[in-house]
Design brief:
single chain, alpha+beta, 60s Ribosomal Protein L30, Chain: A, 6 strands, about 25% strand
Length: about 130
């Protein structure tokens, strides 16, 4: 029987609600949506959509590594933007993290995000 394992790391923000930041199940890792929160301060990073995107992806990277995977093993991401006008700036930073063999991705505009964030990203990866 396959069991789920909760992924913990000090290099990603603690959940801000009753959920796990990352869960491993069999050969897959599922991350909760990651905001551009600095894990050291617990606050959204300053600098706008690009800074928030970079931090959200760093948080995902750190969760995946703590679970025995990496960004290279991501098969699907979902990106939630507060404003679709930020798409090109988000996409430029996203391309710094995913440089080939791209995962499938869905990007939508959300009505609102926790902590008034500009972006939230979740991922599914193979390990």
């Amino acid at each position: 029987m396959v069991e789920k394992a909760i992924i913990h790391t000090e290099n990603a923000p603690k959940p801000i609600g009753p959920y796990s930041a990352g869960v491993a199940f069999g050969n897959l890792i599922f991350t909760a949506g990651q905001l551009g929160i600095d894990p050291k301060t617990g606050e959204i990073v300053q600098g706008g959509i690009q800074a928030e995107t970079r931090q959200a992806l760093e948080n995902i990277k750190n969760l995946l590594e703590a679970g025995g995977s990496s960004l290279d093993q991501v098969v699907k991401t979902t990106v939630y933007l507060r404003d679709m006008a930020d798409f090109s700036q988000m996409n430029a930073v996203y391309a710094e993290f995913f440089t080939g063999n791209f995962p499938a991705r869905t990007t939508i505009q959300a009505g609102a995000l926790p902590k008034n964030a500009a972006i939230e990203i979740e991922a599914i990866a193979y390990r």
